[in-house]
Amino acid sequence: MKKLFLSAFVALFTFAASAQFMVVTTYDGDQEENMDKITANMGIGYMMGDFTVGLMKGNHDHAEGEDHDDDAYDLFARYNLSMMEGAYAALQMPMEDGSDNMQIGLGFALNVWNGLYVEPNYMMPVSEDDNGDREGSFNFGLSYRF
After folding, report:
1. Among the four given CATH numbers 3.40.1710, 2.40.50, 2.40.128, 1.10.20, the one describing domain 20-60+69-145
2. Tell me: the pLDDT tens digits for 19-40?
3. Which of 32, 47, 72, 83 is 20 to 30 A (C-alpha) from 11?
């Protein structure tokens, strides 16, 4: 039994030693001219190998008169693509009605200084809207890995 606990302990610390955290944000041009353009979509992620998972402050459009929570968070996941250094595939979905509002996309993380990355990306909804459209968006993000 002691060997089992020791093995699990060593395995967990091995995973933790090879992992790192990242703080992410996406520039939001729809916000007022203040720091909300950068801080409205902040989040934190946990990187382990080629995968990253985390939570990000959501910025969702709601129908007029619809009750919504201003503190909604999105789950996000990324997979680093091995074909090009810095390229990644991304998935983002809200905690509520996640499968209905899921987005997928591609991005590129460009290291500009010590752990600070500029991340242009393109995200597109998985499901169509009421008009039958699936219009995506091109975004600029920042991340800091530590």
Report:
1. 2.40.128
2. 689 999 888 666 666 776 777 7
3. 83
